[in-house]
Amino acid sequence: MSEIQIGGFRRLKGRIPVQGSKNGVLPMMAASILSDETTVITNVPAIQDVFCMMGILKFMGCGCTLRGGELTICPAELARTDLPETFVRQMRSSIVLLGAVLAREGRASTAYPGGCSIGKRPIDFHLQALRALGAEIREDGCFIRARAEHLAGAEIHFPYPSVGATENALLAAVLAEGETVICGAAREPEIEELCAFLNGMGADVRGGGTEMITVFGRKRLRGCRFRVSGDRIVAGTYLMAAMAGRGEVLLEGVKPGHLKEVIRVLKQAGAGFSLGEDAVAVRMEGPLLPVSVQTGPYPEFPTDLQSPLMGLLCCADGCSRIRETVFEGRYETAEEFKKLGARIQVREGEAVVCGRPSLSGGRVRARDLRGGAALVVAGLAAAGKTEIYDCFHIERGYEDICRDLRLAGADIRWRRQEAKEKER
Ligand code: UD1
């Protein structure tokens, strides 16, 4: 229902606090139901995906409140073991609840999860992991029903380091009897943090952040208090926005170590960085240079920043090459950049972006969460006014992208549909 309006290029300068991590907090919310005690998570962003996960937890009978970034979850009793279809279809990552509910209640059912339309997103590895732990799973049309009298530790081998499947395996294994070894686990910082969170609940998980994670199952877990890290993808988006605005911006509340590959690529594109313990400063003075990038599982370049990078490179001095290897549908936003005058060709799984000195403004559609944020990056470098519609996608993951970028002097604001209707 909401639109974003960007007035055009302005040199950016300022400090921006980075919100807590979306992909970090969502699996922790699911994990909190593994205990019947209260859990408090802090630095939680007020974003639609968090509200959606809260909606699911409430539907299942948990108390759930978010105030000033502090999320309290009281899972004393679970009234249901079926995940509500309307919420689940909105957000794919709700699938991590399957492992958690199954581990706690011995049964769980869900509709196939939804989420962004960024290519095929199967869940075969998730189901394979739960089956390895002893679950009986029936797929019945659009529904999945899982049952397990008893979950037992096992060796799980992932053919690809899926983030969600690693999370699901972890959430079921912490309450399974005996030892589980997850081989080929995803190494994203969010996985490492989930392992620390689970250990805070009394679990025994070792090797989080490496490709082999060992879990020694426990009979019971307790509640805990945990602060989620800054969002590395939001931070990466703002670094690129700062570069598009040829500016100097300090991001506070994010670990530079989570952004190593992103910073390496952005340095190649001409940016200068200084790194603190919990802060990253970027400065863009010279020309924006073309780069060649391939996305991949962490620690490679994140697929979630592929579109924002493409938005930035539309104005580079030459031709860049981007190869998306994780979600094939993520080139769709290229069509929107073209409406702003970008020169992009997608062929055989690779996008070639030939920069021009400036983009023109225009009216474009946020097709998915990161694609929407990428249009903001492009709009900040455009010569005229840019309007982005269908911004509900952006609100799934960014608390308030306009508020944040205005802190660095950007000419950007929300234009709510209701305000527009009043004008008529
Ligand atoms: C998570 C992130 C998302 C990010 C992605 C990759 C959350 C909430 N979302 O999504 O922002 O873009 O990691 O870093 O944390 N695959 C299968 N079978 C499966 C599972 C995955 O083939 O059972 C494939 C997918 O189609 C995709 C690849 O594995 O090609 C990576 O997917 P995965 O790591 O599972 O991504 P998500 O956990 O969905």
UniProtKB/TrEMBL annotation:
Pathway: Cell wall biogenesis; peptidoglycan biosynthesis
Compartment(s): Cytoplasm
InterPro entries per UniProt: Enolpyruvate_Tfrase_dom (IPR001986), Enolpyruvate_Tfrase_sf (IPR036968), MurA_subfamily (IPR050068), RNA3'P_cycl/enolpyr_Trfase_a/b (IPR013792), UDP_GlcNAc_COvinyl_MurA (IPR005750)
EC number annotated for this UniProt entry: 2.5.1.7
GO biological process, one term: regulation of cell shape
This protein's UniProt keywords: Cell cycle, Cell division, Cell shape, Cell wall biogenesis/degradation, Cytoplasm, Peptidoglycan synthesis, Pyruvate, Transferase
Chemical reaction(s) catalysed: phosphoenolpyruvate + UDP-N-acetyl-alpha-D-glucosamine = UDP-N-acetyl-3-O-(1-carboxyvinyl)-alpha-D-glucosamine + phosphate
Pfam families assigned: EPSP_synthase
CDD domains per record: UdpNAET
Binding site for phosphoenolpyruvate: K22, N23
Entry-annotated residues carrying 2-(S-cysteinyl)pyruvic acid O-phosphothioketal: C116
Keyword Transferase attributed: yes
Family: Belongs to the EPSP synthase family. MurA subfamily.
NCBIfam families: murA, PRK09369.1
Function (record text): Cell wall formation. Adds enolpyruvyl to UDP-N-acetylglucosamine.
Name of protein: UDP-N-acetylglucosamine 1-carboxyvinyltransferase
Gene: murA
